[in-house]
Amino acid sequence: MNAGSNTLRVGVIGYGYWGPNLVRNFAESENTAITMIADLSAARLALAERRFPGVRTTHSATEVVTDSRVDVVAIATPVDTHFELGMQVLRAGKHLWLEKPMTETADQARILADEAERRGLVCYVDHTFVYTSAVRKIGDIMRSGDLGKLYYYDSTRINLGLFQHDVNVIADLGVHDFAILDYLMQEQPEAVSASGVNHFPGTPENLAHLTLYYGSGMLAHINVSWLSPVKVRQVLLSGSKQMIVYDDLLPSEKLKVYDSGVNFTEDPVEVQRLRVSYRTGDMWAPRLDETEALRVAVDHFADCVRTTTSPLTDAQLGVRIVELIEASNQSMRERGRCVPVGRPVVRT
Amino acid sequence: MNAGSNTLRVGVIGYGYWGPNLVRNFAESENTAITMIADLSAARLALAERRFPGVRTTHSATEVVTDSRVDVVAIATPVDTHFELGMQVLRAGKHLWLEKPMTETADQARILADEAERRGLVCYVDHTFVYTSAVRKIGDIMRSGDLGKLYYYDSTRINLGLFQHDVNVIADLGVHDFAILDYLMQEQPEAVSASGVNHFPGTPENLAHLTLYYGSGMLAHINVSWLSPVKVRQVLLSGSKQMIVYDDLLPSEKLKVYDSGVNFTEDPVEVQRLRVSYRTGDMWAPRLDETEALRVAVDHFADCVRTTTSPLTDAQLGVRIVELIEASNQSMRERGRCVPVGRPVVRT
Amino acid sequence: MNAGSNTLRVGVIGYGYWGPNLVRNFAESENTAITMIADLSAARLALAERRFPGVRTTHSATEVVTDSRVDVVAIATPVDTHFELGMQVLRAGKHLWLEKPMTETADQARILADEAERRGLVCYVDHTFVYTSAVRKIGDIMRSGDLGKLYYYDSTRINLGLFQHDVNVIADLGVHDFAILDYLMQEQPEAVSASGVNHFPGTPENLAHLTLYYGSGMLAHINVSWLSPVKVRQVLLSGSKQMIVYDDLLPSEKLKVYDSGVNFTEDPVEVQRLRVSYRTGDMWAPRLDETEALRVAVDHFADCVRTTTSPLTDAQLGVRIVELIEASNQSMRERGRCVPVGRPVVRT
Amino acid sequence: MNAGSNTLRVGVIGYGYWGPNLVRNFAESENTAITMIADLSAARLALAERRFPGVRTTHSATEVVTDSRVDVVAIATPVDTHFELGMQVLRAGKHLWLEKPMTETADQARILADEAERRGLVCYVDHTFVYTSAVRKIGDIMRSGDLGKLYYYDSTRINLGLFQHDVNVIADLGVHDFAILDYLMQEQPEAVSASGVNHFPGTPENLAHLTLYYGSGMLAHINVSWLSPVKVRQVLLSGSKQMIVYDDLLPSEKLKVYDSGVNFTEDPVEVQRLRVSYRTGDMWAPRLDETEALRVAVDHFADCVRTTTSPLTDAQLGVRIVELIEASNQSMRERGRCVPVGRPVVRT
Fold first, then answer.
1. Residues of C in contact with A252 (CB under 8 A)
2. Does C207 sit within 8 Å of D219, measured CB to CB?
3. Which chain D positions have a beta carbon within 8 Å of B281's beta carbon?
4. Distance CA C302, CA C163 (A)
5. CA distance linking residue C257 with residue C31, whole number of Å
6. Fewer CB within 10 Å: N-end or C-end of chain D?
């Protein structure tokens, strides 16, 4: 871990569920090095020491933030600490890596985003899915025009377990689709209708269904659950020319592109009869780069810090996603009432 | 086709998509015989004659209804003809087999149900799924108490093609789940929130997502689409003790029962931490009877006619399902607003 | 069933397991019509009459062979009757459709083939797999050169049940691969090594593994079993440029073509190290025609009869396959000793 | 890495493909600690240092063997070095962990086994599959009698790539089944018939099919390949009462137990007809322990060293497996001729 002069020295706060993945990737990348790890739990720190004998550990987040040998701070703690810790890091003049979701409230997210911008610091929000080769390939196909007009996006992220106590299943799993949609679409959703339930009193919702309405007519649906007997990570995208099935659990052929679709006739003679017919064609599974997405993200972050440019998943994206979470929760409380989303903007 | 004295002589009106399945099963069952087939299309009648050289054919539905050698009439025509044809059959004093959905409107369905009851005639509505060995086995498991309290029901029925022009995807595919839920649950849904879209102007909705709210807290979700690159027919049921995956496309092991679930602690010491933990156990796939569901239905219908008893899928069930379709369509038009369902009743 | 002057009038002998499929296809094709059905079992004939009310039935095979209203005879009886019945048909001057395998012994097959040739009659042997769109597509890919040099063919045909009492599992299932290989390859196998076992005394072998050696170095392996908990119908073909997986049980995407393979270096510098590296590329699943293979075969047969040309699966192919069965059985009895195959010939 | 007095201090020779897995498990187990790592490649040692900053590294195997702070030596080098390095370790009076296969020749394996026994040292051969929860569960089911008499064992281990240059595919992949069979069966195979091919001149066989004959009539078949477009790791076991499918690539439900089988009648009345019928019953997928098999093996090894007892996969098992490799290679060279296996012994 002899960091060269260009090597970013990273301090990580939080060595729980996701922290070890961060640390491993910061350690293995040639652009970054792990300098310090903080966690409240002695057991977690002991584990970190076993795996990374040379690294310094501490119970104090502040120690990491203020240490002069730490260039950037990554925060992988419960979401209710993100705002305060994030602000500390920015005030210490350091670049910030924040686990998702960015903050508990959209107001907090906006303040954090403003602070980073004011200080000229990079604020990266870790919506890792945007860095997967599968999502990037879907983006390529959409931008090439091969898919045609997108009709719908339908995602299922369900499995048994890993109940969270600080966030509900939307903030845990649904945000993956919020980020993917933000990356793929040229427009923001206008409104959301959500239904969900917490089956156990006093716990966050463990199952939810969301429908996002877009101005173009595109409909996105997201099904997330911690209470499913089977694990599914599947997204369907249907365009006017092609259709895509993205199954993230497959070891290979995660992406299947179908030359299938629907033909629509406005021929008045046909109007009385079936006006829509379907065609099935070949299927194609493009080869995907197998680099771990988190490694791609780490290198992208290091590059952004070096050049002080805005990351793909910047604070503004983080804000939009927290706004979507808030609108979804509002709709869920009102049994599906359609709730407008934050500040709908068509990107230019 | 020498029908014995106990053999029900069946006239079938409509030999399009589903009619041939009806005819085949009425022909092969020892309890029924096909006497007459009506269809407006000469080509369809020619096909029927090729396959069943002895059968009489006609373009006139009325001829079937009034023929003295026809004991019961099965109607497999577009839904907008169901009410009128059904009333004709009942007025002719004959028992009635109606394809699903029962009628276009709930009002029509109620009139038809009343007419059948008044005349003491059997009115069977063909929600075939209730007669599958898989659904009956799920019912057995639920009634045995092994599943525990049902937390949710989540169904996906999607595929490419078979766009209907007379009904939308809810009335085409969603009704399967409405019928299964009616069969499995001891309660009716209170309200429904639905989102959906017709991607082609002037056609019925081809994609929809429905959430049904039950008084007990059970949540049912139904995803139906004619615009999916892959065909899926899957239902997940999660109970407090066991979980079930029902995949209707598998040639065997359609039903998988998981001894898995969630443990919930109200221990005050644990309240600050994770209050919900999961357990995974063995999986079990019961052997299922392989008799075609439609054959089971045909024999059940013949039995009901002989004994003038009410079928499992009677006119009252048909009414409830049309009411659910109406509420779903209403909610869909209002982008997910929660719409109360017809006359919510807890069965006693 | 008003057969036009060009319609071939077919008599079918044997209405057991496979006969009904023959009858259904001969009945539904516009090129053929069913005139007569023979079976020893009264129950089977009753079933035939129920399904095809107009057809004549008989217990006498001879009656079918000699009937003047029968142009061609299809034989779907146990294999030990094929030779005698087939000779009867040819001697009556009628074209012959024989179920597979052609005969019990290669000697019988050769006599039958000679008889048909001498009389100028069509002798079709029903190796149906050659008429599937999947096998024809594989043939197209191989002939196009896209696959490159074929390294191996590896087939698995296993399932539980359908134990035969007159033939072993090689003559039942292995022949499918013998026929497919005969169709795909430009060469015949030189020798075969087989292992197999009958787990139940006095019954034919119910499980076998065969290796076919080809002069080109190509190796074919065939795994057949009636004693497997799962049903598999899968063939792998690996070429120097592409690889194919053919899964016959999939409802769609039966054929997957991989732009993957192996690169081999003779670079002397690399000789000390790994000389073979692999590359993985895109995958492609061509759309396949969905016409039932047996229907394709029936129409091909009718065409051959009309034009007195030799069918794709003619008596010579039937002979080669019975020779392969004999060699395989010989090797199996000697625990895998490599047995030369009949008269290895390179086709020109 | 402060090893307690009971902690075994391990030196690992070879940090190539498998070595890192060994090191990781020796490091994370509480019973062992990594003291030293040797590899000829500077790049591999650099990687080891990055991951385990505290560990000593060297290019010299001898240094590891002779170091006084090393209690046991694990060898993960190419197989042609196993004998010499293994003898060095034993002569230094140290316990030995050897990667599979044990040695190049059976003679070497026997000498090594004798040396270990003479010196009272533990010689563990790393046939890891024996320590998987799936294989142990299969063993439990077989010993309980639930499976009945075992009819056959059929294994498929195929994938694309990882061509070895020092061993052929039998010694690479086939040995997994040799070890599993040795663990499961109460008898040794009598003879083997093998076919295989090296598609690239000057390289070891990359594809092979093996049939093992057992005195009890049990037949084992093993299909191994480095040249398959798809990756498969599947074993079928069929008994007289139950059948098992073991799919090692599934994330869950790796083991499926079918209450299915075959009924055999010797009833003389039935003799003329089908004598074998099948039954299909429920399926059951037992929950499996998810501990990594290599960790189980490491702890078992540490326990054997502490108590100087013989490991489950001891030198004798290693010898038997090298004997099987030799017989298989002999048969493969003779195109499937049945070759007797070493010294067939029924265990008592």
1. 280
2. yes
3. 287
4. 32
5. 35
6. C
A188: its two tokens: 């923001």
Q: Identify residues of C whose CB sits under 8 angstroms from chain A CBs.
A: 252-253, 259, 280-287
CB contact under 8 A, D245 and C223: no
Tally Cβ neighbours within 10 Å of residue A326: 21
Structure tokens at C223: 């795994």
d(CA C297, CA D182): 49
The DSSP string of D263-332 is: EE---GGGTTS--EEEE---EEE-----S-HHHHHHHHHHHHHHHT---TTBHHHHHHHHHHHHHHHHHH
Q: Which chains touch A (3 or more CB pairs under 8 A)?
A: B, C, D
- What does DSSP assign to residue B166? S
pTM comes to 0.90
Helical (H) or strand (E) element with B13: strand B8-13
pLDDT in tens, D201-220: 888 999 999 999 999 999 99
| Smallest Cα distance from B163 to chain D, Å | 36
DSSP letters spanning A235-264 = EEEEESS-EEEEETT-SS--EEEE--EEEE
Q: Name, in order, each residue with C-beta under 8 angstroms of A30's C-beta and a sequence gap of 6 or more.
A: A7
d(CA C208, CA C205): 7
Count of beta carbons in the 10 Å neighbourhood of residue A234: 20
- Structural tokens at position A240: 């006017």
For C52-77, the pLDDT digits (tens) are 767 899 999 999 999 999 999 999 99
ipTM: 0.89
Task: Please answer yes or no on whether B285 and D287 come within 8 Å at the CB atom.
Answer: no
Domains along the sequence of chain D with CATH: 8-129+294-314 (3.40.50.720), 132-291+323-340 (3.30.360.10)
Which of B295, B297, B306 shows the shortest CA–CA distance to B72? B306
Distance, CA of A320 to CA of A326 (rounded, Å):
10
Closest listed residue to residue C65, CA positions, set C30, C35, C102: C35
Query: Residue D260 forms beta bridges with which residues?
Result: none
Tell me if B109 sits within 8 A of B319, measured CB to CB: yes
The pLDDT value recorded for residue C164 is 81
Identity of the residue in B54, B231, B249 whose CB atom sits nearest the CB atom of C53: B54
Contact D283 B284 (CB under 8 A): yes
Chain A residues touching residue B223 (CB < 8 angstroms):
154, 221, 223
**Contact indicator for D223, C214 with CB cutoff of 8 Å:** no
Considering only alpha carbons, which residue of chain C is nearest residue A284? C284
Contact B231 C249 (CB under 8 A): no
User: What's the residue count for chain D?
Assistant: 348
* Angstroms from A20 CA to nearest CA on chain C: 31
Residue to substitute from A149, A193, A197, A205, interface B, most B β-carbons within 10 A: A193
B287 contacts D284? CB cut-off 8 A: no
CB contact under 8 A, C280 and A286: no
Higher pLDDT, B279 or A324: A324
Which pLDDT score, from 0 to 100, does residue A27 have? 86
Report whether pLDDT(A346) > 50. no
Chain B CB contacts of C54 under 8 Å are: 53-54
Q: CB–CB of A53 and D50 under 8 A?
A: no
Residue C50: strand, helix, or coil = helix
B282 pLDDT above the threshold of 90: yes
A202 to B275: CB separation less than 8 angstroms, yes or no: yes
In total, chain A counts a number of residues equal to: 348
CB A285 within 8 A of CB A137: no
Distance from CA of A54 to the nearest CA of D (A): 6
As a 3-state breakdown, chain B gives helix, strand, coil percent values, each rounded to 5, of: 35, 30, 35
